[in-house]
Write a structure and sequence with these properties.
By secondary structure, this protein is of the alpha+beta class. It contains 16 helices and twelve strands. The strands form four sheets. Strands 2, 6, 7, 8, 9 and 10 form a six-stranded antiparallel sheet that branches. A two-stranded antiparallel ribbon has the order 1-3. The protein has a two-stranded antiparallel sheet with strand order 4-5. The longest helix is centred in the C-terminal third of the chain and has 31 residues.
Amino acid sequence: MPRTLETLNHDARLPALGDAYSSVVLPTPLPEPRLIAFNPAAAKLIDLDPGQALRPEFASVMAGNAPLPGGMTRSMLYAGHQFGVFVPQLGDGRAILIGQVRNERGELWELQLKGAGKTPYSRFGDGRAVLRSTLREYLCGEAMAGLGIPTTRALCIVGSSEPVQRETVETAAVLCRMAPSHLRFGNFEVFYYRGEHDKLAPLADHVIQNYFPDLKESRPWAAPTGTNPVADSVVGGTHGPDLYRAWLTEVVERTAKLMAQWQAVGFCHGVMNSDNMSILGLTLDYGPYGFMEPFDPHYICNHSDETGRYAYDQQPGVGHWNCSRLLQATLPLLHAEPEKAIEVAYAILERYGQVFVPENLAQWRAKLGLMQARDDDPDLINRFFTVLANSRADFTTVFRLLGEVRAEGVPAVRDHILDVAGFDAWLASYRARLAHERSDDDARAARMRQVNPKYVLRNHLAQAAIEKAQAGDYAEVETLRALLARPFDEQPRMEAYATPAPAGTHTVEVSCSS
């Protein structure tokens, strides 16, 4: 049954952890809030009647000007490694949790206002977000959901004429984003590096109980040689060390799978700091992201990333490194003896590569329409990457058109390739491989359309929607949201959204302020 703002099914779990983990904070009122965007698909996740968005009270609640009936107002404490450097205290500097809602399917969803004012963790920030950045997060969360990639979602955006200083003066906005949990690796790092190890187990217990409830029965953990889990003890924990190890193994595996999914669609996060890594394996915190257009394995989407630490080809390694930071922060949960805890951590970390490598290969096989796994698959895949790189070919377009390759004839994808000789040589190998599999062209094309999107959120599309919204026209935002919800469908009359930015169009640069 659809619910109103007043009848949402609240199930507050976070406050039980205590004030060491989060702080009660009141949002800063936003002058003259107005609803700019509303996502009915996200509303459905919390059983909210979409008609509630038409109420004047809705914009007030989602701006932080009025409390969500039955909700809360809390911001989380965390730390993190930013561009490889540890920062001892970060936290929700402009994000305020206003409720935890359980839907009729039993799923728990957090509602968090981003840009609702200062918190105890704002440091020198103003606690605000701007229309530009909220629109980018709103659209990309929904784009990733459409692609089937784990992600936070977005319920709505509320805007205001209040000025906010960034590189230039912009207008304020508040994004209501949703996730089962916004907890991140940094929530554990802060207590480890403070030496407050007694706070790690209660936080882990909270995560396991609420988000991994079936783990104990479904995922026993096998101890590496030389450890004695029966003799272990963890201060403050309600679970045995084996369950913490099984949980951390699951987190590492989810992260590895997420990285493979990002690579397969050409998505670059831009700021893969450990405090931007979800403990649930979700894509979290959309700032200077970008979907790669001309194929470049060294593509850097973040103008602020001068060293290329978070370039496209670095993301899998950074995911591994961030998992190592999480395991460092949870060593006290792994074994009572530090040396053995480190041994256990290394054993868990090995699962990252053991999961990422086959998952990554499986993603590329699917994108090429291959049904069988062969030892020479990496060579076939990498040769295609070389052709793409030499041609600076559009990543999304080429993979989509690759499904039209037939046993004979000149495929349309060839028109998008500059390295024609390299492509022709590769195409001969590809066709031989398909023939060996007795691949049916039509069936393969149908499979490939389900994994190679036609539409992704290109930066110029987001920028066009932003510029129209800044002028008071929000229709393009809704057009993109609906389009990106079905990225694998042809969607007649929407062809223009599948093409790269027109020649001569100014390149959209994004940075950490995005």
